[in-house]
Amino acid sequence: MRVRPRINRWTEARRNLVFSSSISKSLVQPHFVVSGKDIDEPISGMPGIQRQSIDVLLKTIAEDIKHGLSAHMLFTVVEPEHKDSVASAASDMDMHGIIAVRELKKHFGEQIVLFTDVCLCTATDHGHCGVIVDHQIDNDVTVQRLVEIAIAHAEAGSDYVSVSDMMDGRVTAIREALESKGHTSTGILSYAVKYASSFYGPFRDAASSSPIFGDRGSHQMDVRSGYSEAILEALNDEKEGADVIMVKPGLPYLDVLRQVADAVSRPVAVYNVSGEYSMVMNSNPDDHQRKAMIREVLHAFKRAGADIIVSYHAREAIREGLIE
Ligand code: PBG
């Protein structure tokens, strides 16, 4: 089966996230997990966001749940000594990224909706999102690695494997693999419409995932491309069996978000990325102004058609009651 509409209805937490019209219930908080213990390290350029070891992350998410923040997205920061040319660490069941998924699901089970990032860039020694063959990112070899990473996440208990790589055909390949392994309730969030944006800088510092040569132009979308390219990508991933279609970044592409939301029948997510977060947080607003800016930004995403909003502002927005 390629499309299983039940996946988005599987748990009450998923239903609240995907189908509620409330902005606060639509929010997903991103996290960066590192190996070690007792680590709670600030990220430069992203005030209020930390790299955390699993023990600290568990406490952070327990606190978030108390405040009503149930949806979380996990990115794994890999130490340089564990990186290699094919991102082996990303599918290693003994690495902290996968252990974190298991621990989070063991502690919080169906109370949370857990999205886990599936890409190679945080675990390759060259920082690219794919396997390099003859100086090019090889699409189909990369898809095989993405399948292995996605299956590892599914086995650890991820609710939605979140493919952020932009290789062609990866949703089909992952859906088929999930089916053949019996993971019939694991969702796929596809970064279907993801631009080669200059707004990812603070994230790449946080996750040490910058390419050491070249850029991501051969796979992420050209920032000059029009609506037809965005809709092609979105409909394609929907046909391939994605359960959620993502547009990324958010603020510079609100018009694209609206077009995509009108074109697809699956739920649509938007990623309010690190550079957008930085712009707000580092514009030196006073407390009152910052809260008003966050409120305004989140309303814009909802108005443009987002069912799900991934945002580093999620925690503050919910704790401070900035949106309903
Ligand atoms: C991994 C990935 C990136 C982001 C999410 N997943 C960076 C990139 O494509 O280089 C960016 C998120 C952000 O800027 O907040 N491929």
Mean pLDDT: 97
CATH architecture: Alpha-Beta Barrel
Number of helices: 11
Q: Could you tell me how far the N terminus lies from the C terminus, measured between alpha carbons in angstroms?
A: 37 Å
Uncertain regions spanning at least 5 consecutive residues: none
CATH topology: TIM Barrel
Order of SSEs? HEEEHEHEEEHEHEHHEHEHHEH
Describe this structure in words.
With 324 residues, the protein is an alpha/beta fold. It has a single domain (5-319), classed as Aldolase class I (TIM Barrel, Alpha-Beta Barrel). It is 39% helix and 18% strand. It is built from 11 helices and 12 strands. The strands form 2 sheets. An 8-stranded parallel β-barrel has the order 1-4-5-8-9-10-11-12, surrounded by 9 helices. Strand 4, helix 3 and strand 5 form a beta-alpha-beta unit. Helix 2 (54-66) packs parallel to helix 3 (96-108) and helix 4 crosses helix 5 (170-180). The chain is globular and about 55 Å long. The protein starts with 11 loop residues before the first helix and ends in a 5-residue tail after the last helix. The model has no long low-confidence stretch (mean pLDDT 97). Bound molecules: ligand PBG.
Give a summary of the structure in a few sentences.
With 324 residues, this protein is α/β, with parallel strands linked by helices. It has helices at 12-19, 54-66, 96-108, 139-156, 170-180, 201-207, 227-240, 254-263, 274-281, 287-303, 314-319, and strands at residues 27-34, 40-42, 50-53, 71-76, 113-118, 132-133, 136-137, 160-163, 187-194, 244-248, 268-272, 308-311.
